[in-house]
Predict the structure.
Amino acid sequence: MRGEQVNLQNIIARSATTVPSPQERTGGIDPVTKLIDVSRCIGCKACQVACAEWNDLRDEVGNNVGEYDNPLDLTPNTWQVMRFDEYENEQGNLEWLIRKDNCMHCADPGCLEACPAPGAIVQYANGIVDFNSEHCIGCGYCVTGCPFDVPRISEVDGKSYKCTLCSDRVFHGLEPACVKSCPTGSIMFGTRDDMLDLAETRTNFLKRRGFDNAGVYNPEGVDGTHVIYVLQHADKPGIYSALPENPSISPMVSAWKGVTKPLASAAIGLAALTGFLHYATAGPKEHGEDDEQAVRDDEARQREREAREERDEREGRP
Amino acid sequence: MTNHWVDIRNADLIIGMGGNPAEAHPVGFRWVMEAREHNDARLVVVDPRFTRTAAVADYFAEIRTGTDIAFLGGLIHYLIESGRFQRDYVLAYTDASLLVADEFGFEDGLFNGYDADNGEYEMEGWQYQYDEDGHALRDETLQHPRCVFQLMRQHYSRYTLDVVSSVCGTPREKIQHVWDMAAETAAPDKTMTFLYALGWTQHSIGSQIIRTAAIVQLLLGNMGMRGGGVNALRGHSNIQGLTDLGLLSDQLPGYLTLPDDDEQDYEDFILERARPPLVPEEISYWRYYERFHVSLMKAWYGDAATEANNWCYDWLPKMGEDLYDILHTFERMHQGEINGYLCQGFNPLAAFPHKAKVTEALSRLKFLVVIDPLRTETAEFWMNHGEYHDVDPAAIDTEVFRLPTTSFAEEDGTIVNSSRWLQWFWQAAPPPGEAKPDTAILAGIFLRMQRLYQEEGGAFPDPILNLHWPYRRPEEPSPEELAREYNGWALEDVFDEDRNLVVRAGEQIEDFGFLRADGSTACGCWIFAGCWTEGGNQMARRDNSDPYGSGQTLGWAWSWPANRRILYNRASARPDGTPWAANKAVVWWDGERWVGNDVPDFPEDSPPEATQGPFIMNQTGRGQLFARDRMKEGPFPEHYEPFETPIASNPLHPDNPLAKHNPGARIFPQDRENLGTFEEFPHAATSYRLTEHFHYWTMHNRLNAIAQPEKFVEIGESLAQELGIAKGDRVRVSSKRGHIDAVAVVTKRIRPLQVAGKTVHQVGIPLHWGFLGETKKAHLTNTLTPSVGDANTQTPEYKSFLVRVDKL
Amino acid sequence: MTLRVSRRQFFKLGAAGMATSSMAMMGFAPDPAIASIRHFKLTGAKITRSNCTYCSVGCGVLIYARGDAAINNIDDIYHVEGDPDHPVSRGSLCPKGAGLLDYIRSESRLRYPQVREAGSSEWKRISWDEAFTRIARHMKDDRDANFITENEEGQTVNRWTTTGMLAASASTNETAYCTHRIARSLGMVVFDNQARV
Amino acid sequence: MSLAKTDPQLLRYGVWTRLLHWLVAISFVLLVLSGLPFFHPFFWSLTGLFGGPTMTRILHPWIGLFLSLLFVLMAIRFFKESLFKRHDVQWLKQIDDVLTNRDEKLPPVGKNNAGQKLVFWVMLLCIPLLLITGVLMWQPLVGEEVPITLRRLASVSHAYLAFLAIITLIIHIYSGIWVKGSFQAMVRGRVSKAWARHHHDLWYEEEMEKERKHREISRRHASRRGESP
């Protein structure tokens, strides 16, 4: 079966689409989730390389700026980066916190909400939020919509790119490339339920090893994400290269894309209609015969006065 | 590895020391993570830097580079004095109870018999006390002052917590904590494993560091156990295989060795190697040495090898030196004593110490042949690469041939991983352009030489003219043919002691037990015997089932020897044949024979009552706490300072300059002149690899170049502050031998150490990046490293040297 | 003239306007946006089981190539990933293994034999036959000139110490074994590999 | 009925004014048509008018830039006559009389009535802001460099401002259709005195006064030549 067909029946949300996508056939589909256990990450970047290899991405060869991070940030050709932090904990012990940063595949995706191009961003029944470059117009709204600053616009084709959670692999029964490559089992993949269970197990393990604040990062602000973290210090996500405390779609974006859209559009239509109805009831505004008359009278009076003055001059009257 | 990758998951304590497994072997490291998660194991890292391994470790202790013997010697001291060692194991399975010759002694950092003039030991006294049958005397109470145990106890009594702390620069409490964790594994149901790599081998005392670890493991009863062992993670994909096949100056396949000049007589040559047991009834498996040697000569010289000519004994070159190792070779090359050199998939200009010397040496060659899939710095050593490699081609008369060969993806064959697994792989595509497999290239050269000798004659042509060459396509021997050859086959019918026919003429042999010394068998590498039997290619087996849940997967590929996965596994059972602990059981005596979840490393039918020792390759049948005359710098490991040390003297022997550095190490005059002092080069430097790169290969790969694009050095925050260096600044790192420029990574992960009452800063220097490839051009790290090696292996001291750091 | 619009005319205008715009809507309407995942790139690939060539963990890898090894086709490797059957790696790979593709297809791969003549500053392409012949000649000349059959003490030593070799510890056992038997038959002792570096 | 007796003779908008107005008007309409699709998918198919979605995205900002430039000139031209006067306020108070055509009750009106002045001021407010917010979110030229919060602010304000401007536009256009003769005024430039007197009596008075003076002067010249019978 061709991917398109698989998809068409499994898209539960489409960007810039007012009517609901087919939802009925989601019964048998388990949402998927990628778990990233930061406590097991050695920052080897296997995931980063595997991602580029699978997705045929070759970024520029950059520079070293005095840290292990490279590439330094997400780009249209780098859909995930490892972010390294040297953190001294309360006991004064050094911890090397290494976080794999990529699209979180929000259950309530800000990019999708912001996108004006129908079908350029879709959310599959399994939870993957995918960019469909063919329909992307490169307006950059997805960037403003994303609470995690993930999408990147290409200077080459002006289109927006980000991690697809290897939707092509997942739809063919494989795990994402990054997950498969991970040497330490820091990245795991499976159904949402299984991953949430595993996350709990891993959290308990960390608590047994003295990380009392260990926990799962699965932010409610975006109805949870299909990429979740296990953090040693879930109480302060900020120390992991500024992982947002409690991310949600910016109120500004909601204000712009939420109710405003339909209401304003309606208002515009309404305005036109009102005008039409007003014309039909009150009728046009036009000057009448009286104005014409008045003007003629004015002119007549004027001519009279001028004639009189001429006469007076001729007769030399004072 | 004595054990194997998956077995690490059975460990209770993993010590990452002298290695950085997460960085260098991430996938093998998976089994450490599994041990932590499923076996509640702890991971301890002892390293100069807080490494990627440390990032996921349960405990980290910093240490000054090159002081591991002190750290582990102290552990030995602690285990013995606190009685926290596995006494039954030590008594039964080690040479602790054997008595040592009276001449043996140790004074002020030197063992007896040191000849200061030529820097060598006379090792005569380094022996046991023997009775008239040549058997060692024993004291089962371990109380005799001359027994190995007591001598060892005395030797390490100097390694107190304070001494160790001042030598290593590791805080006392951290040392004690690691020692305690290790001591816990003295329990029979607990095992600890050492994961090490070049961080132990690349020191002037490398071999002895590893010996120290082995002693610790014997004391704790962790050898031959599940989740135990001393595990060399090893470097290249087939470095294990090349070692097994003996591609080293003094070796022959299967750890057989070449004769030296004095071994003019074949019988003596064999007797010296076919070692008799030193303890009654022990197996001492090397006693069968001649079977392996003769079978090898039959494989190489076929019918030309006869009893009459001692199986072509004189066709083997004899060693005029201990080793013709690379340091020795490049010294001679530098002297102009070498005319030709072949580099097969090897990049000495980048990989050998003191690059300037290597460049000069190569420039004095008449011809250089580089066989490689990639461009290498070595092949272009004559080419001017600006500031990174500034030479004048016109002044270099070396004729350089560059021959393109296949990559792994374009050939069939096997490689041996560090678990000793021979794994067969298949060709996926043809090589690019005109590239040929190495076998075709070597055959191409050899067959032409052979023809020239046929036509013109020349110096000692016999071995060349008679080299057995039975391959279907002589110009390109196939991997299958070669593999069948090193497995071995019967030239004539082979019979056992009772005259039963066990192998028919022409059949592949099943294991080395069938080899004969009478010329009726041929075998290219006796330890590989069994890899390609009449049953076919065992190395291509892909049954990954693990019926015992022990992680042995006996049906996957083929492991030497005899498909055995854990060496010395007899030691996993008590002397009475029952496992030390159910959760650690590997093999056990079932009343008639040895059985278990691995191939027993022991005669299958030797009952416990026979009390044969588990270390069957040793003459004592026991683990050697006392190395006798096998180690150049002494039977017990002793700490000596690196040849470039940041402190003035060896804190253990401050008053004996002879005992400052390894007394057994060899160093050439010019190289000694090129050693720096801490006055001029104050910082201790260590070179290493990163996980994003593999040596000087992956800098040619776009994907890896992206992941780690530019050369950098790691500098601790306090040193950086001292030198006014900020993250991202360009710095110049200089040693007595040259300088490199790189970006500074300023980090909390390298802390200053208090060593012998002095603050020592360490500088980390990754070695990838050169002046070729996709990454940013850079100076080669080995511009800085000193040309001095380990006394036994001559492995260069890449891990400990002195540098100065300047901001650019 | 004056533009005068009566009520009726206005209705007409309105209607016309509506018509045009809605025509625009229908006429110019873009294709319905169909979401589609990327084509699954492994479809129809030739899969070969292999082992990573880098470190000594010996991870299993699967090499995906286009082409069926037909005589008229030169197969082209385009993807490498971990072999899930492998007991050690279980499908995972490190960043080096994950990037194997770019090693196989590296710009720096050598494609034909070359020689750099003494004092020259450039490579010259040569044939395999020329390469083999010249190298064999060099080696034989050096061996004949410097082979030591007896040392100073008159002991038989039969060694060749003026030409050396470094063997590749990333090459196969078969290559290594073949290399070893050749090197020793020549009497070479200056012979080493990465194991001691 | 016929208004033919008094033909247009008063010049209301000069040629440059008209040109400016229509250029601005056209670009404004194009902006609305190309902008609406990004505002609500309901208008998506309008992108077809501009050669597809991406082309629409590319064109929109350039048209906007074009409009802004012209609008500057236009604003200068209309500024003075758009200043509010007391009677304008009164006019606005009686907006219901305006809408129900009870013009006789309305206060006197100058050249522009309060409604027209409002349009001017609303546009003067909206267009510069639309320009700024538009530039802030301009992909790929500017976008990437602007901090994300600012871009979000820009996006939302751009939408609201556009809405305001569009509503104003609709009212403006409707008035043009509703008030007979004003459309012609912007097309031809001239209006009839009657129209002027009805919709802009103050302006009408001014114009008549000008005309009277003009004729008087010309007559004086004639008499000095002293023609006699």
Summary: Residues 27 and 125 of chain A are 9 Å apart (CA to CA).
